[in-house]
From TrEMBL:
One of its GO terms (molecular function) is uridine kinase activity. It comes from Schizosaccharomyces japonicus (strain yFS275 / FY16936). One of its GO terms (biological process) is pyrimidine-containing compound salvage. SUPFAM superfamilies: P-loop containing nucleoside triphosphate hydrolases, PRTase-like. The lineage of its organism: Eukaryota, Fungi, Dikarya, Ascomycota, Taphrinomycotina. It catalyses: cytidine + ATP = CMP + ADP + H(+); uridine + ATP = UMP + ADP + H(+). This is Uridine kinase. Belongs to the uridine kinase family. GO terms for cellular component: cytoplasm. Transmembrane segments: none annotated. Gene3D superfamilies: 3.40.50.2020, P-loop containing nucleotide triphosphate hydrolases. Pathway: Pyrimidine metabolism; UMP biosynthesis via salvage pathway; UMP from uridine: step 1/1; Pyrimidine metabolism; CTP biosynthesis via salvage pathway; CTP from cytidine: step 1/3. The gene is urk1.
């Protein structure tokens, strides 16, 4: 299989799907305190205008202080401007996890409290990570992860004026304390540690954030990187489709509604161009209820004993695990009401995946899951399984959050044979519950725009 350049075997029946964030690019930005590192990083994000570019500040990885050290810091007597103040092991661990496509919790450091807070920031689904800090290029292990390294060479007087403004306005310092700390720690650190990083950089930017020409070079590099990722992702999808098995060789569990005269009549009504929107919604809701009832047969149950009104005992069944419904916005919204009618105590989650109009690449825009989703049975809802890119991404997100494939049930109205085949190659252990399995989109095109008809737009 020479075509499998970025698809590796997971087992004899499955290969890995590589979503865009599995090919993350790291950009490191170093420079003296006040050189404009944060401003440059924010400018890069703004120029790209994409949600999948994330800034990580080295400040988040300052080591927690002891009570004595914290007291020194409150008196401006603690040296933060030395490499030993950074938790390099934790930073490296988090960057490696991000590079592997995992969900990562980044610590939050308070310069007012001079300590880490209990809260964290979740990083997941990024394609570009910008790491900025005065020592961003100092550690060899961290430096080895960067695809491009930038050093901002800014005049010391400019740096001092910016530091005064920042520390007084945002960090609750007084001007005397800032000047003392600068002369005792910041300036000596620049001479000893910071400026030596320039020899490790790909681009040295004189005048820092004010050098628009050099910064445009950085923007163009990142834009080319994202473009390369998009084309690479679509090649991977094409490879998957070419490798997909025949429908008779599919191993995943496909459960289709039993063909009855009632179901055929409903399908006829839905395909009829003259059917009004109210009738469409009514009959889609009817099919949704059928699908959720069929889906229930796929869930695990266990014995339980209850007390009857008469006081005697009864041994029956209950769900073995909590159910979580996750809808792919907005198509999955057409099935949410049916799931809630079936299980009133179901937990709900959302995934928003957008497909780029030109490249066809899926992009993760939003996700929200209930706590402990990895231990639940997950019902993933979409209107149709026609363009497997968005469903593949949604499934990969759930797997990345620790949900076993065996615990995922994909519920859709319509499934195309080719999409089922592709899905079976990557996630062979999921279950698909569907009303109609169609050989091609042309045969049943109007049903494949279910969300548009359902929501009237």
């Amino acid at each position: 299989m020479s075509s499998m350049t970025s698809l590796s075997s997971m087992s004899t029946n499955a290969v890995t799907y590589q979503p865009p964030w599995r090919r993350i690019r790291f950009v490191g930005i170093a420079g003296p305190s006040g050189s404009g590192k944060t401003s440059v990083a924010q400018s890069i994000v703004k120029s790209l205008n994409q949600p999948n570019v994330v800034i990580l500040s080295l400040d988040s990885f300052y080591k927690p202080l002891t009570p004595e050290q914290r007291q020194q810091a409150l008196q401006n007597n603690y040296d933060f401007d030395k490499p030993e103040s950074i938790d390099w092991d934790l930073l490296y661990e988090k960057l490696v996890e991000i590079k592997a496509g995992r969900k990562v919790e980044i610590p939050v450091y308070s310069f007012i409290e001079h300590n880490r807070l209990n809260e964290t920031i979740t990083v997941y689904g990024a394609s570009i990570i910008i790491v900025e800090g005065i020592f961003a290029l100092f550690n060899e292990n961290i430096r080895s992860l960067f695809d491009v390294s930038i050093f901002l060479d800014t005049d010391p007087d400019v740096c001092l004026s910016r530091r005064l403004s920042r520390d007084i306005t945002y960090r609750g310092r007084d001007i005397l304390g800032v000047l003392q700390q600068y002369s005792r720690f910041v300036k000596p650190s620049y001479d000893t540690y910071v400026r030596t990083q320039a020899k490790y950089t790909d681009i040295i930017v004189p005048r820092g954030r004010d050098n628009k020409t050099a910064l445009n070079m950085v923007y163009n590099y990142i834009i080319r990187t994202l473009s390369h990722q998009s084309s690479g992702h679509m090649r991977n999808l094409s490879t998957l489709q070419a490798m997909a098995p025949t429908i008779n060789d599919i191993t995943l569990n496909i459960i289709e509604l039993r063909k009855t005269p009632e179901l055929e009549a409903i399908k006829t009504i839905l395909l009829d161009k003259s059917t009004d929107s109210d009738s469409v919604q009514f009959y889609l809701s009817r099919i949704g209820s059928m699908l959720m009832s069929l889906m229930s047969d796929c869930l695990a149950f266990e014995e339980t004993e209850v007390t009857l009104h008469s006081g005697s005992k009864w041994t029956g069944l209950k769900l073995a695990k909590q159910i979580c419904g996750v809808s792919i916005l907005r198509s999955g919204g057409t099935l949410e009401a049916a799931l809630l009618r079936q299980y009133t105590d179901v937990r709900m989650g959302k995934i928003l995946v957008q497909i780029h109009g030109e490249t066809g690449e899926p992009s993760l825009k939003f996700y929200k899951f209930p706590h402990g989703i990895a231990a639940m049975d997950v019902v993933l809802m979409a209107a149709a399984l026609r363009d497997e890119a968005n469903v593949l991404m949604a499934l990969q997100v759930l797997v990345d959050f620790g949900v076993p494939q065996e615990s995922i049930i994909l519920v859709v109205y319509v499934s195309l044979v080719e999409s089922i085949k592709t899905l079976s190659l990557v996630f062979p252990k999921i279950t698909i519950v569907t009303a109609f399995v169609e050989p091609s989109a042309e045969r049943c095109f109007s049903m494949l725009d279910i969300e548009g008809v359902y929501f009237g737009c």
